[in-house]
Design brief:
By secondary structure, the chain is α/β, with parallel strands linked by helices. It has 3 domains: 102 residues, Cobalt-precorrin-4 Transmethylase, domain 1 (3-Layer(aba) Sandwich), CATH 3.40.1010; 101 residues, 2-Layer Sandwich (Methyltransferase, Cobalt-precorrin-4 Transmethylase, Domain 2), CATH 3.30.950.10; 177 residues, 3-Layer(aba) Sandwich (Rossmann fold). The protein contains 11 helices and 19 strands. A 7-stranded mixed beta sheet has the order 13-12-11-14-15-19-16, with helices on both faces. A 5-stranded parallel beta sheet has the order 3-2-4-1-5, with helices on both faces. It is globular and about 80 Å long. The two termini are 42 Å apart.
Length: 400
């Protein structure tokens, strides 16, 4: 197969391309890209056939490329093709060894250059085809983040999100058409942003003040961060449970018996690439989980019906948490069968019946048993006393 050149191009168009990138474009027999990118290449610089990307792109991308496999192909990409760009999609689709990538400075690099920010200290959040609530887990005191916009409406959506969540004082800088002849940089607070006249090519820089709401990615959010009917793993036990589940970037959790969704939500908040599926048989609770997930910045949480019947619709998990329904016939067997080798399973038992079942599984499969007893200091008349919560027996095991 003829190699595919992937050339990053910025808002400065042809004038901003390095000589190697220009040579790759000029040598191509067929050029792929968006209409804007194709129009940025002068006709006298390339006589290649120009093919705009189809919509939707992904279902026909491979066929579109294969149709011209015997010709020299060049794909035009925005900025750095391997940074939230089509280059990563092509590497998965046709293999990295089939590509020659010519990067251009990314919008994040250009934004940090304009702001004087240290690139390694910035968190990047993409809102391309994502709910604006995805920004929420990245907000904490003194945070600096760059938000990749989907279009001209994204800055207003981000400003609204910040205001509604107590971050109206956050400094918000909208950088438009970076590197191009119409570049514009505007800065204000999220509370004062009221502008709809924005170039679709924009990124948003957000600087959170030291004061204000504090919700880090660490497990153990306050109980009042969740709405619901009381089916909630309490804060201290939740933090210990997440520590036992041991999430790592890119891993997937099954949360069986979702309740308020707290375990799955805080699993996903630990890292932007963590994924989770929650299984809840009560429709009203499933709706509550969806509301909680969006309010806490993980709208991508997948919500399924009753376990174990709904297991067939979910991808293989790296870890499973069973917080409810463990005594249902065949539940733990189905969880164990679904867990990949090396995966972790954590079961929390608060009833004697579930505890007896856990002891049986512990005898069969080993692992670790622990008893968690939390007591909180609460008023007793004019004094303070210890009020115990229900003890939790926790079984943790790794499938060999």
């Amino acid at each position: 197969m003829t190699p595919i050149d992937v050339v990053g191009i910025g808002a400065d168009g042809w004038d901003g391309l390095a000589s190697a990138s220009r040579h790759a474009v000029a040598a191509a027999e067929v050029l792929f890209g968006s209409s804007r990118q194709l129009d940025s290449v002068p006709l006298d610089a390339s006589g290649a056939q120009r093919i705009p990307w189809p919509t939707p792109l992904l279902p026909t991308l491979r066929a579109t490329l294969d149709e011209h496999a015997d010709r020299r192909r060049c794909v035009l990409a925005s900025g750095d093709p391997m940074f939230h760009g089509i280059g990563t999609t092509l590497a998965r689709l046709v293999g990295a060894d089939t590509l020659r990538v010519f990067p251009h400075p990314s919008s994040v690099s250009l934004a940090c250059a304009r702001l004087g920010w240290s690139l390694p200290d910035v968190e990047v959040v993409s809102l391309v085809a994502r709910d604006p609530a995805t920004v929420l887990p990245a907000l904490h005191p003194s945070a600096r983040l760059i938000v990749l916009a989907e279009n001209d409406t994204t800055p207003t959506a981000v400003a609204t999100l910040l205001r509604e969540n107590g971050f109206g004082d956050a400094r918000m800088t909208v950088l438009e058409s970076l590197g191009g002849p119409t570049e514009r940089v505007r800065s204000t607070t999220a509370g004062d942003w009221r502008t709809d006249d924005v170039d679709p090519l924009n990124v948003i820089a957000v600087e959170v003040p030291v004061t204000g709401p504090r919700r880090t990615r660490n497990p153990g959010l306050p109980d009042d961060a969740y709405s619901g009917d009381g089916q909630l793993t309490k804060r201290e036990v939740r933090a210990l449970t997440l520590a036992s589940l041991d999430p790592a970037p890119g891993e997937r959790l099954w949360d069986v018996g979702g309740g308020s969704g707290s375990i799955a939500i805080e699993w996903m908040r630990t890292h932007p690439r963590c994924r989770a599926d929650t299984f809840e048989r009560v429709p009203e609770r499933a709706r509550t989980i969806a509301d909680n997930a969006r309010a806490l910045g993980v709208p991508g949480l997948e919500i399924h019906g009753a376990a174990p019947a709904a297991f067939t619709d979910a991808p293989t998990p790296d870890a499973i948490f069973v917080g409810g329904g463990a005594t249902a016939p065949g539940m733990l067997d189905a969880c164990w069968a679904a867990l990949r080798p090396g995966g972790r399973m954590v079961v929390n038992a608060v009833t004697a019946e579930t505890e007896a079942l856990v002891f049986h599984w512990f005898t069969e499969h080993g692992g670790t048993l622990r008893r968690i007893q939390i007591q909180r200091g609460e008023p007793v008349g004019g004094f303070t006393g210890w009020r115990p919560q229900m003890p939790v027996t926790q079984w943790c095991v790794v499938r060999a």
